[in-house]
Amino acid sequence: MPINVLFAAHVDRWETYRAPLTDAFAALDLDVQLATDFRPEDVDYIVYAPNSPLQDFAPYTRAKAVLNLWAGVEAVVNNPTLKIPLARMVDPGMTKSMTEWVVGHVMRYHLGLDRYIVNPDHAWAPRTPPLAAQRTVCILGMGALGSAVAEVLLTLGFKVRGWSRREKSIPGVAMHHGEDGLELALSQAEILILLLPDTPATENILDAAAIAHLPKGAFVINPGRGPLIDDQALIDALNTGQIAQATLDVFRTEPLPADHPFWAHPGVTVTPHVAADTRPHTASQVIAENIRRGEIGEPFLHLVDRTSGY
Ligand code: NAP
């Protein structure tokens, strides 16, 4: 009997994913019927994006797992009708995309590129930047994405600090963890990168108190989630020079409202949630592998821990 896989994402994603998913199932010899519509009681797996119209999982009585297309799960993890395993997306294509985006913005700040790109007076004012080995970058959130970013920054020669919830060791990275480790992690963060999930424990993690621990003139890069930052505290810190500049990819409300002060602030670069989209070809292989595992009773990859919310 074929495995029924329901594709429940925004309608415009179906044509993007149909062929890559079909190819990935075939590559693993999975006999799959893939569709955007089944009788709920006939569905075996749900390939899901939280902006799908599907919000009530209760009728999907036979389904073995919800396989999220996004890395972030904050919009589905607390759904009370979801009783089956939830896997988040860890996609090699998305990871590369995030690494490239973050490293680009780190290099902009590290090299001080803005003074030459925006130079209306044509000032000949050379300034030698430090080498990467003289610059400390700190990453809050050392999971799939944070640790991949750290690896590339280390290759470039940066001093890298990381912060995670649980104690862990990553070669070459000065690691900190837990509430006690945050102050130390921030205290040397000349460039700070936020790659934490949005959970009750991480909301406003970069508030006025945390910002005060940063070295004066630090740069902030947030491709994690909007609620990680206290928006007003960031604006205040930009105004005093405690934070020199910030690049923000994610916001509490998206699209960022036209009257939000981030748009107008000269120290803020807004990018429209483009750091790392899921890449259909590689993500489909991850989905297919999880279905293969589900069918032979092996543990799913990238399961979300519902109590910690990520
Ligand atoms: P992940 O593998 O789950 O890693 C999350 C990291 O955050 C882990 O190191 C975890 O610590 C740490 N963490 C979680 N709660 C914490 C807490 N309370 N205190 C300290 N550390 C904590 O997630 P990921 O795949 O790297 O993705 C991270 C986030 O990036 C996603 O949740 C999503 O919001 C965002 N994202 C954004 C885009 C974009 O385009 N802008 C694209 C993809 C993802 P442990 O290691 O101890 O578990």
Describe the structure.
The chain has helices at residues 14-27, 92-111, 114-117, 144-156, 178-187, 208-213, 231-240, 261-264, 280-296; strands spanning 3-8, 32-35, 45-48, 65-68, 86-87, 136-140, 159-164, 173-177, 191-194, 218-222, 243-248, 268-270. The chain starts with a strand and ends in a 14-residue tail after the last helix. The longest helix has 20 residues, at 92-111. The protein has 9 helices and 12 strands. Strands 8-7-6-9-10-11-12 form a 7-stranded parallel β-sheet. A 5-stranded parallel β-sheet has the order 2-1-3-4-5, with helices on one face. Helix content is 32%, strand content 17%. The chain has 2 domains: 3-91 and 278-296, NAD(P)-binding Rossmann-like Domain (Rossmann fold, 3-Layer(aba) Sandwich); 93-270, NAD(P)-binding Rossmann-like Domain (Rossmann fold, 3-Layer(aba) Sandwich), CATH 3.40.50. By secondary structure, it is α/β, with parallel strands linked by helices. The site of NADP nicotinamide-adenine-dinucleotide phosphate has 32 residues, from helix 2, helix 4 and strand 7.
